[in-house]
Structure prediction request, 466 residues.
Amino acid sequence: MNIPAFAILGHPNEGKSSVVSTLAEDETVSISRTPGETRQCRTYSVTLQGTPRFKLIDTPGFQNPAAVLDWFQSHQGPEAEIVSDFLKAHQGQERFHHDMELLRPLSDQAGILYVVDASRPLREVDRQEMEILRLTGRPRMALLNCKREGSSYHEVWKDAVGRRFNIVRDFNAHHATFSERIHLLEALKVLNQAWEAPLSEVIEALQADWQRRISESTLVLLELLRDAIHHVHHHRMNANDPMDQQKEAAMEGYRKDLRKMEQRARKSWRALFHHQTLPGGEDLSPLVGGDLFAEHVWRLLGFSRRQLTTIGAVTGGILGAGADLAAGGLTFGILAAGGAALGAMGGWKGGPNLGAKRLPLPGGRTFASETLQVGPSQDFQLVSVLVDRSLLYLSRLMNWAHGRRDHEAFQAAIRQSEGFVTHWSKEKRDLLLRWFTRHQKLRETTGIDTELKELLERILSELGGT
Prediction:
């Protein structure tokens, strides 16, 4: 099948490889700022559901633009054969190796995406390169990739490329979102009528694939919430160890289990959005990457104290009117669960249960010692905090351009003082609460699961710019 192909041209430090990486959603694309380091064209196929949709060809930079331009301007043959004639005339000449390599895709009918840093001054060598590309006669688009804001050179560049290219677009490969990538493909359709139908199919397929990712991301989040509120951690007791130490060990085991659940979800999300190398744990900001049960996390994320108090009063004490919020909203009730009581903890309510009981083994046997059980959670705030941390993480992940390699900036981008759910409408808060109570009471959940899934899909679609 003949699919559209686009040669990405420009200087290495202008961001052309970043454009390839972002458009192909491929974080393995090598990004080099050293002129001359790339000697061969590298082709990246954008494939959806096993079918190649279009190709992006990362090319070397020009080696001798002045000499190439002189040859093009003195060419006497048919205009349509200027590129192939140049390749034949200079075959085997190392001096023109880079120039021939970058022009070769154009002899195979590839379109041109010329990437320039419009925040720097326009040079004579730039005019030479642009004139060469104009003389090729191939459909061509110029991408103005401003690497510094507030540049006074943008209009100069815009005028220069406007004289030599069919279409000019501003496109920052380090900040391009999904919708901006789609708009670029829409513009490419205009370059060549033969590309209109296949690129329309590409756009439709990409949009469907994006919606699939959002839907699957939502299912991962719902699974995380269900697993978290139903989780039970067992800690085998030892009569020789202090009880307080064993209770803390049981609690820490429970907390560790939930941290692992959250990390599994983030790993799934990174796979869905093709961001395998981005950080997902403690190397993120303390709010999103730090301890799930840290006090500052529960103070800044999830529902506000006022919202929690209202929810607790309305629901007959899911949180408890006297819920202790001193530990960031997380409290652990200490209850007896079929064994020796471990002691009262005042009026604490909420949090996972902790109790002692004998666990049955096959054949009717039991452990020789009692086992501490932590969970399942009774704390609605756990759900709201998990939702908040997940939305904060996903909002950055979905919109992170694959052409970026500064992972420190990804970490910094999540340093947000507050989350999303505290700004939710009453209808959204009530829906999450109904979902929690239905699961907590082990009632039929199919309908409420669907409602919450649809809500979260809408939120993720808005966060992803669709």
In short: The beta strands are 5-9, 42-48, 51-58, 111-116, 140-144, 167-170, 233-236, 352-357, 371-377. The first helix runs from residue 16 to 24. Confidence is low (pLDDT under 50) at residues 313-351.
